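Continuing the batch. This is chain 6 of the set; chains 1 through 5 are on the previous pages. Same settings as before, nothing changed between runs. Recording input and output for traceability.
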Amino acid sequence: MTEDLSPAERYAAARIRAAEDATALAPFRAMYEFELDPFQIEACQSLEAGKGVLVAAPTGSGKTIVGEFAVHLALQQGRKCFYTTPIKALSNQKYTDLAKRYGPEKVGLLTGDNSVNSEAPVVVMTTEVLRNMLYAGSQSLLGLGYVVMDEVHYLSDRIRGAVWEEVIIHLPESVTLVSLSATVSNAEEFGDWLDTVRGHTDVIVSEERPVPLWQHVMAGRRMYDLFEEETDHGGRGPGRREVNPELARLARMENQRTYNPKDRRRGKMVREADRERERRQRTRIWTPGRPEVIERLDAEGLLPAITFIFSRAACEAAVQQCMYAGLRLNNDEARARVREIVEERTSAIPSEDLHVLGYYEWLEGLERGIAAHHAGMLPTFKEVVEELFVRGLVKAVFATETLALGINMPARSVVLEKLVKWNGEQHADITPGEYTQLTGRAGRRGIDVEGHAVVLWQRGMDPVGLAGLAGTRTYPLRSSFKPSYNMAVNLVQQFGRHRSRELLETSFAQFQADKSVVGISRQVQKNEEGLEGYREGMTCHLGDFEEYARLRRDLKDRETDLAKQGAAQRRAAAATSLEKLKPGDVIHVPTGKFAGLALVLDPGIPAGRSNGHRGFEHHDGPRPLVLTAERQVKRLASMDFPVPVEPLERMRIPKSFNPRSPQSRRDLASALRTKAGHIEPERHRRQRAAAADDREIARLRTELRAHPCHGCDEREDHARWAERYHRLQRDTRQLERRIEGRTNTIARTFDRIVALLTELDYLRADEVTEHGKRLARLYGELDLLASECLRDGVWEGLSPAELAACVSALVYEARQSDDAVAPKVPAGKAKAALGEMVHIWGRLDALEEEFKINQAEGVGQREPDLGFAWAAHQWASDRTLDEVLREAEMPAGDFVRWTKQVIDVLGQIAAAAPREGSTVAKNARKAVDALLRGVVAYSSVG
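Output for chain 6:
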């Protein structure tokens, strides 16, 4: 190719190559066996030019290459690089990768569980660790040149998202920020904010998957393509995609009611033919069983596969089903290799614990190439599954959605059993963002030519709706940032109140709120121009027509109010009269479809309400069941009685009366007509309207007639303009209130938090008191409650096990609340201390209500949950794992996770508790030692 170039062109190309070779990117690219993608090169070039970068790209596209280049630059420049991740498992994985590449002496790890070589030039850590270092002014920040924030889209997480924004806002200006995100639809907006708070930031967006993704639906014995024609080349380019007409036909067939047993007009032979046709259709459409799905994928060469099931128990059940079906995906050589790796990785676990953890059943599944993966599993077990899957020794994994969060575990295929999941409150459809995140695991770069997403057919499935999920590849990034008590004291301690308030105004949350205000402000301006035009239209030469219009409006409003009051009084009187009815009363129904003579069978007074008593909630009032003179038995509503009703007569209802029997109804209706058919109901006299005697209405009418504009010939024309003016003015004020509500929202919340902390003597203007300094060391949802417990000495004199039980209430949150059963708690001092903690929370809750701090908005202290207190106490008291798990009725993985969180908070309490005259700090350290044993201590690095 170069021989076709002129000498000048060859010289220019040589100059470009020489310039490229002189960059830091050239030796970095040489470290990889594959060519970097254009978006990776662009991002690396921006970093080398000294700019920050936001890289938004699909899962598995290689975003972390950009983060690794930041590590390379830091080491080359003799500076530090912190690589942050949202979860410990990701931190462990990234630490292993970087230590392998640059050597363990240059790479460190800092998570809540592990501290390895923390002063190394490259340190991998969870985002919370970096946030805590920034607030503490750690010496480790000296010489920091780069911070990589992997999975930065986590800032939309409701509980933890604020931490990402805190770090981004508080990092020193000299630090270059590398933000790595999943594909989000508002990357430019996020980039604009980063530009504002961090300086020049290049936004690099890649929507191209490195491995094309093909979408399928498995129904019955067949696997159908979701789209008729993949004109966009599997997600790589633009193109119109039509839903496969065969799938649309299946959906129609399933929805057709081919046989209706109530249709008596059809002949027997026709109905038999319908049944046969329906049976044949159903043999074509069914949801395949889990073993059947894996066998089908294996036969078509689509393993390894991850099947996402939104239930831990269902994941375990799926493995059992595959084993019972005799499924074996590994040969003898692979089985032996699996056993070797598993025994090596679990050698530290005592044999008595292995049985409790279901080790042998788990191992049998692994040897067959089948495993579950969910948060209820022991972390060591999860890590083994991940390692075996990456090595190709486990070929079918049944996982909950937590696996989709960043763990490097790509597959050839991803299977979704259902498109509905439990979100903690209700069963809800998965979002396009969740679908993208889950199916993003399909297709291994450098291994697979294409990836496959398979959705199992379910009754009522809408192929068009599924196509919408699959076609929407992006989702918006929404800030979940909210100030907390700990954040407030740390900010005031470092910057003072005024500067802290300004810093919070720079958050992405406020940036998004302010941006949304721009459109509203524009509408307000348009409305104001319109108001000016309407004002001209209602101008009257005789006087102030705006004043005259206001009088007319006030008069109309007063008349409407009085009419409503009258109607309400009539309804109340009618309801009261209905409450007095008894079975056997003969009444005249004044209006409605069943107007006329009727016999009360049942007064229809709701439960909890008897005559004259109003202790119930029922917006409709009494609904009497009556027999009409036309033999109909109906339950009437309050709307059938616009006026009070009085019994005309009384009748005995025979005990033998059956409202479902036509003969019974006919006989009783005949008796009703005989008894009361001749009685004429009293006509309800209409009362004098309240408006006729109302002084306010009289005054307004007098003023209206006396007003100069009342005699204007164009009065009604002006009035029409005035009405338009009033409506537009009302709309404009609503818009202005919306602007006011969105402007300075974060700062106003901060002000309320500061006011409450000042009330409790944590802050005095810009001064942070000793109590405030203690709160600054306590992180977590219940930071203020923990600080108040230390201040009141609630935990003084508790043993380490009792302290562990109390601290568990600060971190534990039951997956599903069960108010019916009180949690088991340790007796004695621990029980008293837990009771006092709940009492203190009640006091804080009342205070938050007073200061308008709203838990529903993610600010404030939730109620402590005592559900883990017994388990924490027993484990710290040296009970066996078998005993603790059996009594706690909790999976081992959950037990380990909650115990580690208790250990983390105990460490904070040990640092924050008073040094003199207190036993809390010493016992907190002892509690950590008592908890950090057995399965809890089996945390591996790498």
